Amino acid sequence: MDPSRLPIALRLLEGGKDREALALLQTPQEGLPEAERLALLGFLEGRKGDWGGYRALALEAARRAQTPLTLYHLGLALPPREGAVALEEALHRFRGNSQAEARLHLALAVVLERLGRPEALAHAALARLKAPSPWTRLHHLRLELFFGALPLPEVLEEGEEFLLHELPGVRLLAGHTLALAHLLRGQPRRARTLLQGLLPLLGPGSLPSFLVLGALALEPLRARLLLEAAQAGPQAGWSQGFLLLAQGLLEGGEAARDLLLSAHGLLREDGALYALLAEARLRALGAEVEAPLA
C-alpha cells in the first residue's frame, strides 16, 4: 500500500466507510506504514465488536513501530489500567507535536473515563484545545456531564449543532451526549426521541455503549429488541458488562439483582461510572455489593 493512502483510509474510517477503508488496507507494507496499517485493521475489528482481534493487532502494530497512531490504538485496545500507562508514556514521548498530543489526550480521556477517574475531563479539554474538531468537542462535552460543572442547558446548546453533521459517527456521539444530558435533566421523553433517531446508525461496535441509555429511555419492547441485537454479536469485557446492566435495568426482582451484580463485577474495573449505576439500582432493590466503589 502506498503510505500516502493511510490518510485516505483514516478519512474513510472517520466517515464510517469501513469497506472502502478495508480495501485500501489490504496490501502489506514494510516498516512504519505496515505498523499503522495493522493498527487501522485492528480498529476495524473493534468496530465489528471483536475487541480481542483489535487488541492483538494493536499489540503487533506497536511492536513493529511506536507512533502516535499505533500507541493511540494500543491504549484504547488494552485493558484500561494498562492502556492509561501506555498512553501517558506516549504523551511524554511525543510532547511538542500538537496533533499527536491531541490524539493521545483524547484516547487517555476515554480510557480514564472507563476507570471513573475525573482527570479524564482535563485530558478531553486538552485534546479540544490542541485540535478542535467535532470529536474533541463532543468528548469534552460528554465528560463535562460526568466530571464537570458546565450547566446542562449549555451542553445541550453546544451539542445540538452536531446532530445534523455529515459524518454518522459524529451524529452518534452527539446523540449519545445529548440523550445522556436529557436523562440527567429528568427528561426521558426527549432522550427517547433522540435515541430512536439514532438506532439505524448503530453497528456492532457502537451498539454496547447505547444499551444502557436505551434501557433507561426507550420503551421496553424497543429496548429489548436492542438487547437482542447486541446478544447476537461478540460479547466480552465491558461490552458484556453493558449487556448485563441493561438487562438488569429492564428486569425486576431476583433476576434483576443477579444481573446487576454480574454487571457490577465486570464494570467496576472497566466502566466504573456504569458500575455506580448498578450499585444505585441494587440499593433500590434492597441489595448491596461486597466492595462498593469509592
Integer-rounded radius of gyration:
19 Å
Distance between the termini: 49 Å
Low-confidence stretches: none
Assembly context of the chains:
single chain
Structural class assignment: mainly alpha
The helix tally amounts to 17
The largest β sheet comes out as:
none
Q: Overall pLDDT, averaged?
A: 91
Shape: globular
Describe the structure.
This protein is mainly alpha-helical and 294 residues long. Helices cover 73% and strands 0% of the residues. The chain has helices at residues 6-14, 18-24, 32-47, 51-64, 68-77, 80-93, 98-114, 119-130, 134-147, 152-159, 168-184, 188-198, 207-217, 220-231, 237-250, 253-267, 272-284. The model has no long low-confidence stretch (mean pLDDT 91).
